[in-house]
Amino acid sequence: MKYRQLTQEQRYQIYALLKIDVNLSEIAEVLKVHRSTICREVRRNKGKRGYRPNQAHRKAMARAKKAKCKIRPEDWKLIEEKLCEEFSPEQVVHWVRKHYGLIVSHEWIYQHIWEDKKRHGTLYTYLRRQKKYRHRGGKCDNRGKIAHRRSIEDRPKIVEQRGRVGDWEADTIIGKGKKGAIVTLVDRKSRYLRMGKVSRRTKELVANKIISLLAGLPVHTITCDNGKEFADHEKIATELQTDVFFAHPYSSWERGTNENTNGLIRQYIPKDTYFHKLSTLDVVSVENRLNSRPRKCLDFDQPVVFLKKHCCT
Q1: What gap in Å lies between CA 52 and CA 18, rounded to an integer?
Q2: 126 to each of 92, 130, 239, 240, 295, how far by Cα in Å?
Q3: Chain-centre distance of CA 32, in angstroms?
Q4: Most exposed: 47, 101, 260, 293, by fewest CB within 10 Å?
Q5: Backbone angles phi, psi at 302, to 5 degrees
Q6: Nearby residues of 112 by Cβ (< 8 Å), 6 or more positions away
Q7: What order do you get walking across the sheet with 193-198 strand by strand?
Q8: How would you classify the pairing of strands 221-224 and 167-174?
Q9: Which residues contact 312 (CB under 8 A, 6 or more apart)?
Q10: With the C-alpha atoms ordered 284, 290, 292, 297, is the resulting torsion angle positive or negative?
């Protein structure tokens, strides 16, 4: 594997893993990068208080800005046009390289966006995440125990390889005032998303919603977090004829595909949204938008197209 720039989200993952004494080789395996990438990252960006994600990201961006080559104004205009079409910076990088032969780093594009914001520009409003990442963590899980839960440690190794469609990650996102929720399910290989609104985050409503959302789709496994809304996992397993597993408490990287997708959803459904104002059509519209976006991990194929290809073979 070759060295590549880390994202701010990955730097938060590094910070969280270092806090629980995970070694650098294991961190590299979790992030799917070379060990030297992690060693270089920690060595270059560590401060007096150790490795801290915000400080590390600022240092890395400062170095990138210093080494930045000249990009013509007409090139930036092209890049800005694609950003306004809701392409992510990484998608813009691939697009301009493929169609115009322009070589530019996605980190440079982020820097351009934030500089534009300081000048009261609006480019940042087209980003999926318009605010800085907030680290969430804790030392203990106070949400109680779920009966007969199966740990992610018992999950088949094939799931880690992302070699098949049908291994899903599940979560819920909550509306303002904690009234109502949206169940989100993401396939680990195709990144195909299913979303469904529930009026209350009860185990019965969540279980029924998961069953209805995945009906007719390939389902081998489902991996959830430790929220009590997934306590009816045995019903889900029976109805869908699948195996349900639970990640370790406060280990969001074990469901990284779902966590990342929830962040993408927040571009359309911000945290200050009252969910009772959302219609079923609103939720379906967001699902369709994200399933139609090209993904770098799919060689810039669309999740909906990728899934159809698999189901037709």
Answers
A1: 10
A2: 13, 8, 40, 38, 17
A3: 15
A4: 101
A5: -95, 140
A6: 76, 79, 123
A7: 193-198, 181-187, 167-174, 221-224, 243-246
A8: parallel
A9: none
A10: negative
Q: Are 191 and 290 in contact (CB under 8 A)?
A: no
Contact 199, 180 (CB under 8 A): yes
Q: Do 219 and 242 contact (CB within 8 A), yes or no?
A: yes
Length reported for the chain: 313
Q: Please report the DSSP string for 163-191 in residue order.
A: -STTEEEEEEEE-GGG--EEEEEEETTT-
What amino acid occupies position 104?
V
Share of the chain above pLDDT 70, in %: 90
* Neighbour-count burial for 6-42, b at 16+ CB within 10 Å, e otherwise: bbbbbbbbbbbbbeeeeebeebbebbebeeebbeebb
Burial 229-247 (b: 16+ CB within 10 A, else e): bbbbbebbbebbebbbbbb
The alpha-helical segments, DSSP class H, found in the chain are: 8-19, 24-31, 35-45, 53-67, 73-84, 89-100, 106-118, 203-214, 233-240, 256-265, 280-291, 303-311
Segment 194-234, tens digit of pLDDT:
999 999 999 999 999 999 999 999 999 999 998 899 999 99
Tokens read off for 190? 């195709």
> 195 pairs with which residues across the strands?
184
The tokens for 115 are 């500089």
Q: In this structure, which amino acid lies at residue 53?
A: P
pLDDT digits (tens, 9 = 90+) for 270-290: 988 999 889 999 999 999 999
> CA-to-CA distance for 110 and 232, rounded, in angstroms?
42
Residue-wise burial string across 165-174, b where 16 or more C-beta atoms lie within 10 A, e elsewhere: bbbbbbbbbe
* Alpha-carbon separation of residue 286 from 47, 238, 250, 298 (angstroms): 41, 29, 27, 20
What CA–CA distance (Å, rounded) separates 180 from 275?
6
What CA–CA distances, in Å, run from 136 to 16, 31, 58, 251?
A: 9, 18, 20, 10
